[in-house]
Automatic annotation (TrEMBL):
Family statement drawn from the similarity comment of this UniProt entry: Belongs to the HypE family.
Organism: Ruminiclostridium cellulolyticum (strain ATCC 35319 / DSM 5812 / JCM 6584 / H10) (Clostridium cellulolyticum)
Residue ranges constituting the PurM-like C-terminal domain according to the UniProt record: 151-305
Domain PurM-like N-terminal: 33-138
Protein's recorded name: AIR synthase related protein domain protein
Top-level division of the source organism's lineage: Bacteria
Length: 330
């Protein structure tokens, strides 16, 4: 199998298809495009999500906190606790581990999230540090937003710009190579995007506003997330390529490595669907969060299109495969 998330057909067959025990207390279950699970406790629910960091180097601690907290926020819920598992290869120094934990604790503190447990060990089973985080949040059970609620006619909103996380990872891990094709200010700005990869503010705001679905954009990028929202909701989607914001530094980096920014890992960006797209964009803007309407949810379940008026093109949006980031890591 190729690096990255499992293809959806394999995920359904080998992972989801093997689950055979179901509890009535579980009110949100695994599915394509679904970021979280939720367990009912009377009128409240405990919302949970877990993710590993395997492809990042210098900013692994920061990313680990953000990606799990972002998943909770994609349910319209504020994250409150984080469990952290760290697997270190033999030979890892105390300094390396301390640096990682400094990142984890600093980032969690910025989000007002407590580290509530986890596990740390040194093992010959890994050849680099593997960091996995599980985040929990609490919500009234009838206020949880899923990825499967998009409705035909909804606007598709993107926060920030495509490829944020991938840009920051590549700029940090390939700094020497990029210094030959980018100036110092461009490279510094690209690396600074690591500070923009939380979607907790927009997730909580959108949840209060009233939206039909939300999805944190991770592996597979904007197009992968759009496909997953449509798949989870049994709808179609039309995305306007010309309306998708992409930072100039992201285009520069992607052009250099020959990768597609719309298929690049994009934590820090969220896809949101709702009836009043303009109202939500206005609310987010009032709270200093950039947002753009990039498409529409459609009735046709098999119609998932990327169109460009500038280029005069129309193409099918395919299910997400291995993220563009892995082309560089290879």
């Amino acid at each position: 199998m190729e690096p990255g998330k499992l293809p959806n057909d394999i995920l359904n067959k080998i992972v989801f298809g093997k689950i055979n025990t179901f509890r009535k207390e579980v009110i949100m279950r695994p599915g394509i495009g679904e970021d979280c699970a939720a367990i009912e406790f009377d009128k409240y629910a405990c919302v949970m999500s877990t993710d590993p960091i395997t492809a990042a180097g210098k900013n692994a601690g920061r990313l680990a906190v953000h990606i799990s907290c972002n998943d909770i926020a994609s349910s319209g819920v504020e994250p409150l606790g984080l469990m952290v598992t760290i697997l270190c290869p033999v030979g890892t120094t105390e300094t390396e581990l301390e640096h990682l934990m400094d990142q984890v604790c600093e980032t969690a503190g910025q989000l007002n999230v407590e580290i509530i447990g986890g596990h740390t060990e040194v093992t010959p089973a890994v050849n680099k540090i593997i960091l996995s985080t599980t985040c929990v949040g609490k919500s009234l059970k009838d206020k949880i937003i899923s990825s499967s609620g998009a409705k035909p006619g909804d606007s598709v909103i993107l926060t920030k710009s495509a490829g944020l996380e991938g840009t920051a990872i590549i700029a940090g891990d390939f700094e020497e190579e990029l210094a030959e094709v980018m100036n110092k200010n461009e490279l510094q700005y690209a690396k600074s995007l690591i500070n923009a990869i939380s979607v907790v503010p927009e997730g909580v705001l959108a949840g209060r506003f009233g939206v039909t679905s939300m999805h944190d954009i991770t592996e597979g990028g904007v197009l992968g997330a759009a496909w997953e929202i449509a798949e989870a909701s049994s709808t179609g989607v039309t995305i306007k390529k010309d309306s998708i914001p992409v930072e100039p530094v992201t285009r520069h980096i992607c052009d250099h490595f020959g990768i597609n920014p719309l298929r690049l890992i994009s934590s820090g960006c969220m896809i949101i669907t709702c009836k009043d797209g303009e109202g939500l964009v206005r609310l987010l803007g009032e709270n200093n969060i950039k947002a753009s309407i990039i498409g529409t949810i459609t009735q046709n379940k098999t119609g998932r299109l990327l169109i460009s008026e500038k280029e005069g093109t129309s193409e099918n949006i395919e299910a997400p495969g291995a993220d563009e980031l892995y082309k560089i890591i290879k």
